[in-house]
Each structure stands twice: as structure tokens, then as C-alpha cells.
Automatic annotation (TrEMBL):
Gene3D superfamilies linked: 1.20.1280.50, Cupin
Domain F-box: 64-110
Compositional bias per record (Low complexity), positions renumbered to this chain: 484-496
InterPro entries attached to this UniProt entry: Cupin_8 (IPR041667), F-box-like_dom_sf (IPR036047), F-box_dom (IPR001810), JmjC_dom (IPR003347), JMJD6_ArgDemeth/LysHydrox (IPR050910)
The protein's name: F-box domain-containing protein
Organism: Pseudomassariella vexata
Molecular function as annotated in GO: cis-regulatory region sequence-specific DNA binding
Region (Disordered): 464-504
Organism classification: Eukaryota, Fungi, Dikarya, Ascomycota, Pezizomycotina
Length: 504
């Protein structure tokens, strides 16, 4: 059983409490409850809502006065409108609001607003609240809030302290991502271009593999600004944040301009810092030269950082090479419309999922593991994981680490068809191109016509064939429905007219 530090039932999984993020905790959470995991004491003494039913004496909520009728979620939404000083003042009124006004996500949002107005490296104080207010540890008042019971407050704390080992161990055999010791380009094209795999023993030859550890990057590029989600920080500042934060969703360094910033060369030539694995063959997006979309990233992050479920942009495939640390991957094929706990809009332009990776693991991991098509694996230092086009994937750092990733387009006609269809049919979802490129589909077709005319013609014919097939199936479905309706005397679409109407 998952217990709070005082031995009471943790959370609302048994007692029907509030939601965290956009999803209620459902039956999949039982897998966590059944574990023997015990989380640490909340720094303010806040307890899950369910513990309120075992408590004696008054609760802190009783001191809220007229706003006591509001649910916790509404109180949190109101606090999101306050500036730093107002939030600090409100937190001084009572223990219940003190606990709410210490929620790190509120202060993180305020910090990002300040960064927008006045960008610059932070003087990190160990938490977002302390950093915004520039409070040293000794200046923080210690006020116990152990009569505050709230899932809205406790759930993020629980998520930030989950044990990843609970979820990444005992992977079912049928779920395990295949590991390969070696792979030729011919084997990749024949057998592996549409299946994930982990390639071992490859990147040890890269010069960066020997030097780009977290410590190595810190020594080489301490003052270089890298993109960490919504902020640009010198690596030294990000390293300080990495080493001391308690975030549910730690900031993830994900920089697309790292090669230019560090002055390294990439490619199959002497002096290159690294190069794409040869087994993947030619990258057709290279035909776009300087006009190609963003395609390669340096990734650095602490334990528990990572990316929630998504598909790679523009229907590209990708490889992800781990230089330091290890990553857990949870993947689903394109045949799965949406992974458990993930909700996709009708046009696939919006993906809604729990606010954090930890929340997903707590609430949906057990269900995901049992879903047909699910694949899981751990990619360790020195290994490369391949993500085929259209595959859903969630990835989380098991330990602090460094990785390099690149998106690409293989010469497989199936893959090229997917990319061209995406660029043509979903122009509003195309990403990564500069503003100067207003017609990515036309540009790519033009370059393919110059360098790969036969492949292009075959691919366009395949796209036309598929389009005609979809149209034919639609017409057959509409026709059969109309015939059935007319035969049964049921409703059918038509235009009503009087006998004297002139209808051609």
C-alpha cells in the first residue's frame, strides 16, 4: 500500500478525491497503491485529502471564511492571477493559503513572466519561490501546515518523488524493444524501417561520446546559452538548477542550435564531432540544405525529466543516442489512435495528456503496458534508439544524462509517402521551417524532382492511388447508405421542389 509518512492512506484513490491535471486517478493507479512505496514527508506537512477522514481536530480549510466553499481547483486558479508580492501576502493570511501559495508551479509561472520581461541567468536558490523572491534558505520561515488536506497540493509532491524503478522494471517479454548489436543499411530497409529498435555498440567512436558528459559540457561551455524549454540559460546556470530542484516536471534542456553554439562539425568527414549512424542511409531532407526544418537537438536533463507522449514532427523518423545516463521509452505504433490517458483532437493537431510524466506513470502506466502494440525499453549510454515515423513515444531520464537526437526522412517509399502526405495535407501542423519557407511541400517536391525523380514519381503515384482508394471507399459507403435509406423509405438528403420549379 502507498502510504503517507504518518501511515494513513495516501490520496483519493480509495476515498474519491480531487483530480490533478486534466484526468481523474483511475483504476490503473491501483498498481501503484499495491506497491510498498512510501513517499517522504511533504515539506509543509500537507497530506492527501483522504487523510482528512482519519484526522482529529479542526482542519486548516475551516479558517478560509467565505472562500471556503470553493473547491481547491478554483482556489488555485484564482491564485494564478496574482503577482509575486500579492501571492506572498495572501500566503501569510492562514495555513491553508500558505500551503497553496507555496505551490512551485505558481512561482515557476511567475519566474517565466519575469524572464520574458527581463531575460537573464537566474541566481537559483533551490526552488522557484526562493528564486523569484531571492530568499536564502535561512530566510524561509518554517510553518507547519499539517492540518492541510489537499490532493491538489499533495499530488504534485507525490509525483515529484515517485520511484521510477517501480515502472521501468519487469518489462513483459512481448513488450520489450528489440536490441541489435549491429545493423546494415540493407537490413534496415528490408526489416527495420518501420519498427523501433535499440542499436548497441555504435556511438563509442564519436568524439563527443568521450567529452560531452554533464561535467564535460560544464567545463567546455559554462557561459554558452542553451534553450531549456521556455528559458535560455548559460549551461552553468542550468547545471545548478539540475543539481537542486524538486520539480514534478524538471526543465529539459532541448537545444536545436547547439552545433552552431558549440562550433562543432556534424557529418561523415574528418574533424566531425559525431555523425548519423550509417544504417539509416541517406536523409532526404538534406536535399533542402539551408532550408530544411529544425532537425537535430542536444538534450540534457536531470532524473525524471523527459517528454510526454507525442509523435515526431512532419511525419519524420528519428534516432536518439544516449551519451550519458539512461532513458526509459514507452511506445505505441501508428495503428493505436491514442495511448491510454492521451486524448487527440479530430484533426490530430492537439494532444492532451496528464501534466507530467510522473502523473502519467502513476495513473496510466499499468493500462498502457497491457495495451496491444505497447513497446518498452531502456536505452543506455552508448546506445541508439530508432523511432519510426508516426510512432507515439514517451521518454523519461532514469538518471541525469546527455543525448543527441536527429529527425530524418529515409528513402523508403512508404516513409516518403507519409512525409509528403503530411506536408501536403496538414500544412497548419508543419513545424520547424523558417518563416521564409512558405510552401514546404512544393519546395521538397522540387528538390526531389532535381535529385530523386524516379523515387518522387513512384511516391506521387502511390499517394494518388491511396487518395483514389479513400475517395472510392467514401463514395461506396455514402452510396450504399443512400440506397438502403431509399429502399426502406427512410430519410435521405435531397432538394425539395414544386412541380413548376425549373430544375435542370
Amino acid at each position: 500500500m502507498l502510504l503517507s509518512p504518518d501511515g494513513l492512506v495516501n490520496g483519493a484513490s480509495n476515498l474519491g478525491g480531487a483530480m490533478h491535471g486534466v484526468h481523474a486517478v483511475h483504476d490503473a493507479h491501483e498498481s501503484t497503491i499495491e506497491s510498498s512505496e512510501v513517499i517522504p514527508v511533504h515539506p509543509l506537512g500537507v497530506k492527501p485529502l483522504g487523510n482528512q477522514y482519519f484526522a482529529t481536530g479542526p482542519t486548516a480549510r475551516q479558517a478560509l471564511g467565505s472562500i471556503g466553499c470553493m473547491p481547491d481547483e478554483m482556489i488555485l486558479q484564482l491564485l494564478e492571477y496574482l503577482d509575486a508580492q500579492s501571492l506572498r501576502n495572501v500566503g501569510s493570511t492562514c495555513k491553508f493559503l500558505r500551503a497553496f501559495c507555496h505551490l512551485e508551479e505558481l512561482w515557476k509561472a511567475l519566474f517565466l513572466e519575469l524572464q520574458t520581461a527581463s531575460p537573464g541567468p537566474p541566481s537559483w536558490k533551490g526552488s522557484w519561490r526562493s528564486t523569484v523572491l531571492q530568499l536564502p534558505a535561512e530566510a524561509i520561515a518554517q510553518v507547519e501546515c499539517n492540518n492541510v488536506f489537499s490532493d491538489v497540493l499533495h499530488r504534485p509532491f507525490e509525483c515529484s518523488h515517485i520511484r521510477l524503478s517501480t515502472y521501468i522494471s519487469d518489462i513483459p517479454r512481448e513488450n520489450q524493444i528489440t536490441r541489435l548489436e549491429s545493423l546494415t543499411h540493407d537490413e534496415f530497409e528490408r526489416k527495420w524501417s518501420d519498427k523501433p529498435f535499440i542499436l548497441a555498440n555504435y556511438i563509442e567512436a564519436w568524439p563527443v561520446y568521450k567529452t560531452w558528459s554533464i561535467d564535460g559540457l560544464g567545463k567546455r561551455y559554462p557561459d554558452v546559452n542553451f534553450r531549456a524549454e521556455a528559458v535560455d540559460w548559460p549551461f552553468s546556470a542550468y547545471r545548478t538548477y539540475m543539481d537542486k530542484n524538486d520539480d514534478e516536471s524538471p526543465l529539459y534542456l532541448f537545444d536545436k542550435e547547439f552545433a552552431e553554439k558549440t562550433g562543432i562539425d556534424v557529418g561523415q568527414h574528418e574533424g566531425a564531432a559525431y555523425w548519423p549512424p550509417e544504417c539509416f542511409g541517406e536523409d532526404l531532407f538534406e536535399l533542402l540544405a539551408e532550408e530544411r526544418p529544425a532537425h537535430r537537438w542536444l538534450i540534457v536533463g536531470p532524473e525524471s525529466s523527459g517528454s510526454t507522449f507525442h509523435k515526431d514532427p512532419n511525419a519524420t523518423s528519428a534516432w536518439n543516442a544516449v551519451i550519458q545516463g539512461s532513458k526509459y521509452w514507452l511506445m505505441f505504433p501508428p495503428s493505436v489512435p491514442q495511448p491510454p490517458g492521451v486524448f487527440v483532437s479530430e484533426d490530430s493537431s492537439e494532444v492532451t495528456s496528464p501534466l507530467s510524466i510522473a502523473e502519467y506513470l502513476l495513473s496510466f502506466h499499468a493500462e498502457a503496458r497491457k495495451t496491444a502494440g505497447c513497446l518498452e525499453g531502456i536505452c543506455r549510454a552508448g546506445e541508439v534508439l530508432f523511432v519510426p515515423s508516426g510512432w507515439w513515444h514517451l521518454v523519461v531520464n532514469i538518471e541525469p544524462g546527455v543525448a543527441l537526437t536527429q529527425n530524418f526522412v529515409t528513402k523508403s517509399q512508404k516513409h516518403l509517402t507519409q512525409v509528403l502526405s503530411f506536408l501536403k495535407d496538414k500544412p497548419d501542423q508543419v513545424t520547424g521551417f523558417s518563416r521564409d519557407v512558405t510552401k514546404p511541400y512544393e519546395l521538397f517536391v522540387e528538390r526531389l524532382q532535381e535529385k530523386q525523380p524516379s523515387l518522387l514519381n513512384e511516391t506521387l503515384q502511390e499517394m494518388e492511388r491511396k487518395s483514389a482508394g479513400r475517395k472510392r471507399r467514401w463514395e461506396e459507403a455514402v452510396g450504399s447508405n443512400a440506397e438502403a435509406d431509399n429502399a426502406s423509405g427512410g430519410f435521405s438528403f435531397g432538394f425539395g421542389a414544386d412541380d413548376d420549379d425549373d430544375i435542370p
